[in-house]
Amino acid sequence: MLSIEENKKLCETDQGTIMGDYIRRFWIPFRLSSDVPEADGAPIRIKLMGEDLLAFRNTKGDVGLIQSNCPHRWADLFFGRNEESGIRCTYHGWKFDSQGNCVDMPTETDESTYKDKIKIAAYPVKEIAGILWTYMGPKQLTPEIPDFEYLKMPESHRFVSWNWQQTNYAQAIEGGIDSAHSNYLHASLDAYHMTEAWKEQWQKSQNLRDKYHARDQHPKFFAEDTDYGVITGARRDTGEGEFYWRYNLFLLPFYTMPPSAPTQKFFHAFVPIDDHNNMRWTFVWNLARPLLATDVEDWRNGSGLHAAALPGPDHWPLRNKENDYLINRDYQKTLSFTGITGTGEQDFSVQEGMGPITPRNKEHLGTTDIGIIKSRRRLLKEATALQDGSEPEAASKGNVYYLRSGDVLLGPEQNWVKDPVIQDLQTATW
Questions:
Q1: Residue 211 CA from chain centroid, whole number
Q2: The pLDDT of residue 430
Q3: Which among 136, 145, 129 is positioned nearest to 397, based on CA atoms?
Q4: How many other C-beta atoms lie within 10 A of the C-beta of residue 373?
Q5: What is the block-wise mean pLDDT of the chain (430 residues), using blocks of 10 residues?
Q6: Among 54, 274, 318, 348, which has the highest number of CB atoms less than 10 A from its own CB?
Q7: pTM score
Q8: How far apart are CA 405 and CA 258, in angstroms?
Q9: SS3 sequence, 240-306?
Q10: Backbone angle region of 262, left / alpha / beta, with phi > 0 → left and psi within -120 to 50 → alpha
Q11: SS3 letters for the chain?
């Protein structure tokens, strides 16, 4: 468990908080390129790290990210005119470019230089692999973009989505690195009860997860710090003289990379919107071939790891807390452990059910929670070190993110994290 004070430090991300200062040292994905599609088009409201911002695509096609209120009389720039590479306030015509400079102040005299003294908050934006990234920290410390393999893939081999999630970012991360829950939360009833039909199916499968994941429902967990964050290994006994290992990675400051198939990989990002909400990102890429059009269409409709979204700029989940995730109690009795459709929505149901911020002082953690404990401590240690003057190394070394997660069979004598087999498993070679 964490104390009330430690939990506060972990979860609060506004400007001036220790975790807010820390996360602002990294590039942050905040929207899809398609969310801001049109040059000189309508701006969109952005809530990010507790700040009210506005994103717009200027005349040249570049995206700006600025504070949402005009500094004159605090009018809402969302209603402004996006024209000639800037947003013009509809109240008195003050105009601001994507760097936050006031470039026109028509209410002042021609001789006035007042506009040159006015500047609003603005953050740099990079557009990479269909994603808009921003950096909200000190300009002189601007780091590298994290060098994920996903960002190097051809467009035909990758797909990304995001959804609004009604929880603090930290408990979403913890759901992402919790390997024990998949035996239950995401299980079919056949797998949960280990029926004869299910056993026959996994005995024929060549997929390690199909063959070994549900055989041992009491995995042993191990965790170690790494240069990118924390690696957690879950060891299951195969009953055949080897251990089945699944590797779950926590990458600073808010990414998780659960184990995935040999050729199709994925990871999540849980980006703070404010202390009570986050953006749940899902990045999928295939190493061997272009993604199938049918898969992409299904993902857009909310299958697999992706959650179906209602129309609108906030990507609000179709199955959400307000409608109880459209739980089907008949399905819960006959088909799935939860009766909730969608892996993402199943995660939402437990994580959002904890409340906006989990009261970690009331928890009773078990042996399966070692990775969660380690990751919490790492985040708090990193944020505290920044307050003491030590900049985060991971932010300045984008190549530490160039890796993969997965699963593997190891003999009893092999080291779970240092064996060359594990190094090969994690090496991205695209």
A1: 29
A2: 45
A3: 145
A4: 16
A5: 95 97 98 97 98 98 98 98 97 98 95 96 98 97 96 97 97 90 77 66 65 74 96 92 94 95 94 98 96 94 91 94 96 90 93 96 93 96 98 94 93 93 75
A6: 348
A7: 0.94
A8: 6
A9: CCCEEEEEEEEECCCEEECCCCCCEEEEEEEEEEECCEEEEEEEEEECCCCCCHHHHHHHHCCCCCC
A10: alpha
A11: CCCHHHHHHHHCCCCCCHHHHHHCCCEEEEEEHHHCCCCCCCCEEEEECCEEEEEEECCCCCEEEEECECCCCCCEHHHCEECCCCEECCCCCCEECCCCEEEECCCCCCCCCHHHHCECCEECEEEECCEEEEECCCHHHCCCCCCCHHHHCCHHHEEEEEEEECCCHHHHHHHHCCCHHHHCCCCEHHHHHCCHHHHHHHHHCCCHHHHHCCCCCCCEEEEEECCCEEEEEEEEECCCCCEEEEEEEEECCCEEECCCCCCEEEEEEEEEEECCEEEEEEEEEECCCCCCHHHHHHHHCCCCCCCCECCCCCCCECCCHHHHHHCCHHHHHHCECCCCCCHHHHHHHHHHCCCCCCCHHHCCCCHHHHHHHHHHHHHHHHHHHHHCCCCCHHHHCHHHHCECCCEEEECCCCCCCCCHHHHHHHECCC
Residue 411 structure tokens: 């003999």
The rounded distance, in Å, linking the Cα atoms of 114 and 102 is 9
Question: How many C-beta neighbours within 10 Å does residue 418 have?
Answer: 10
For the chain, give the number of residues.
430
Burial degree of 191 (CB within 10 A; 0-12, 13-18, 19+): buried
The pLDDT assigned to 210 comes to: 65
pLDDT at 148: 96
Contact between 45 and 56 (Cβ < 8 Å) = no
**89: which 2 tokens?**
């306030």
